[in-house]
Write a structure and sequence with these properties.
single chain, alpha+beta
Length: 424
């Protein structure tokens, strides 16, 4: 990667942000013959990308039905339908295969590199950029974007160099994980250029729990519990999937997917999380199974009997909530106690506690309002030579490769259209 030169660049497409969307946009523009420059304020590209999937690189979701795919992104999901039709899961997988990354599909359509190394995704992108002679400028700190009428005139860097291009793409990501350089700069620039920024919020975020004893469950994982959120006695929504107890509360994919919504409810009263540890077994059937277990193991402690149904480390907490002595032997458990145990296993109640700031989310909710972006081109409807790509746009999905797919898709479309626009 080359350092910043002390001269003025003149190019056709300037991409701001060297994350997933920015790298893809730069590749797409350069593939179509546009002289392209990629500006990244960090010392290297893809710093946040390397955190993906715990370092394993869940870079895509292979859902082939594009309408079902778009539905995963909530109310703004339809905004992505055109970009997915141009560059969806199939095209994204083929793109990385073409760069030498062998891939595999795991449960829930999650796509990973066969090597389980996110670095392979990043290295392939950098090789693609270099092969297309994209000018990569790391350590590029932007201090201003000047506009004239309804167009960007130039980008000014802190060393007073000007970046002058025919078209510009802002792909700076969100405001989460500030240690990776995601400081929310792109929102400020977009707003200064006349765009509306929908309120920012943490998305894909864990949930703090008020009960202090929750720390005793830290590290306990559940494969597929039913998770429901209640407020003012009303059930708001439910989810199922993997979850993990932590010293502060609960996390894991299923919790992360609803954590942002729970945080947004905090100002309207206490929020309670109800966990059904065995959603595939109805209450009456579980009553029978517990009774049979206790009868077969009369001298085992209650906590050891429950360990036949849930993780052993969770059993004492169930006993605590159910007000049943965990050390009592099964043959001494009363019917009403057994009923309370079953009710607790089917409806384990916790009160949501501390909320997390926007910086703590895996991604940032909110962003540039989609009504101000042409979904067929990713071009701004306000600034003639500006395009957007990636997380900066207010459209986000759950865990499982959805958000990186959005980056590849919108980045590809923005880069292609910016390169075409410079020829008109």
């Amino acid at each position: 990667m080359e350092n910043m030169k002390n001269d003025k660049f003149n190019c056709e497409v300037a991409v701001i942000g060297g994350g997933p969307a920015g790298m893809m946009a730069a590749i797409a523009a350069a593939q179509r013959g546009a002289k392209t420059i990629l500006l990244e304020k960090n010392g290297a590209l893809g710093k946040k990308l390397l955190l993906t999937g715990g370092g394993r690189g869940n870079f895509c979701n292979a859902e082939s039905d594009l309408r079902k795919l778009a539905a995963n992104y909530g109310q703004n999901g339809p905004f992505l339908f055109h970009s997915f039709s141009q560059f969806g899961p199939k095209e994204a997988i083929e793109f990385f295969n073409g760069l030498g990354v062998k891939t595999k599909i795991e449960n829930n359509n999650r796509v990973f590199p066969k090597s389980d190394r996110t670095a392979d995704i990043l290295n392939a992108l950098i090789a693609g950029l270099n092969g297309l002679n994209v000018e990569i400028v790391c350590g590029a700190r932007i201090i201003g974007i000047e506009k004239e009428n309804n167009s960007i005139k130039k980008i000014v860097l802190d060393n007073r160099d000007d970046i002058v291009a025919k078209n510009y793409i802002i792909a700076t990501g969100g405001k989460s994980y500030p240690q990776t350089g995601s400081a929310g700069d792109g929102y400020l620039w977009a707003q200064a250029l006349g765009h509306k920024i929908d309120p920012l919020s943490p998305a894909l975020v864990p949930v703090g729990i008020k009960e202090e004893w929750i720390k005793d469950l830290a590290g306990v994982a559940l494969e597929n519990p039913k998770i429901s959120a209640f407020q003012n006695g009303k059930k708001l929504f439910s989810a199922r999937g993997e979850m993990l107890f932590a010293h502060f509360g609960v996390s894991g994919p299923a919790i992360l997917n609803i954590g942002g919504a729970i945080a947004g409810l905090a100002g309207n009263g206490a929020v309670f999380i109800h966990l059904d540890f065995l959603p595939e077994i109805i209450n009456g059937e579980l009553q029978k199974k517990i009774l049979e277990n206790f009868q077969k193991n009369p001298n085992k402690t209650v906590k050891n009997c429950l360990a036949d149904f849930v993780p052993a480390a969770l059993a004492p907490a169930i006993c605590r909530v159910a007000a049943v002595d965990a050390e009592k032997t099964a043959n001494n458990v009363e019917k009403k106690e057994r009923r309370r145990l079953v009710e607790t296993m089917k409806n384990f109640k916790l009160e949501a506690g501390r909320t997390f700031p926007v910086e703590s989310g895996m991604i940032t909710g909110g962003g540039v309002n989609v009504a101000e972006i042409d979904h067929k081109t990713m071009r701004s409807k306000i600034i003639r030579n500006l395009f957007f790509a990636g997380e900066i746009i207010n459209v986000h999905g759950p865990t499982g490769g959805f958000n990186l797919l959005q980056c590849w898709s919108t980045g590809r479309l923005a880069g292609r259209e910016a390169s075409l626009a410079h020829k008109k």
